[in-house]
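Translate structure to sequence.
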C-alpha cells in the first residue's frame, strides 16, 4: 500500500503543480501527521487498520503529470527526506473511511497523534 501526506500535496499544489490526492499513485492520503516521522518500521493505526511502514516509494515517470515541469524527483526520499510517499504493509486489515483518526507509533517511542 502506498501512502502520502495531504499537507505535502497541498504544498506542491500551492506551488502550481497539478497534483491532487491519488495522482501521485498513493492508495491512501493522510493528513495531520508530521510526515518526517513516517519512517521505515513505524506503525500507523487508522481507525482499526494497522500498517507498518516498509520503505520509501521511489517515484517514477508514471506520476509525471502531477508536476508542472515533469520533475517527479520531488517525491524522492533520497533527495528530499520526509517529503516522499511511503509503502506500508497491512498488519491488521480493516475498512478505512474519511475522517478516521490516525495515530503514528514512531520507531522506539510511544504513540503520537
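Result:
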Amino acid at each position: 500500500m502506498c501512502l502520502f501526506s495531504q499537507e505535502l500535496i497541498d504544498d506542491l499544489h500551492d506551488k502550481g503543480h497539478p497534483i491532487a490526492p491519488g495522482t501521485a499513485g498513493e492508495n491512501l492520503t493522510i493528513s495531520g501527521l508530521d510526515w518526517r516521522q513516517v519512517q521505515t518500521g513505524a506503525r500507523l493505526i487508522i481507525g482499526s487498520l494497522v500498517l507498518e511502514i516498509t520503505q520509501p516509494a521511489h517515484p517514477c515517470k508514471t506520476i509525471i503529470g502531477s508536476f508542472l515541469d515533469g520533475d517527479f524527483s520531488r517525491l524522492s526520499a533520497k533527495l528530499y527526506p520526509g517529503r516522499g510517499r511511503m509503502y506500508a504493509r497491512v498488519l491488521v486489515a480493516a475498512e478505512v473511511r474519511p475522517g478516521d483518526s490516525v495515530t503514528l507509533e514512531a520507531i522506539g517511542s510511544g504513540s503520537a497523534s
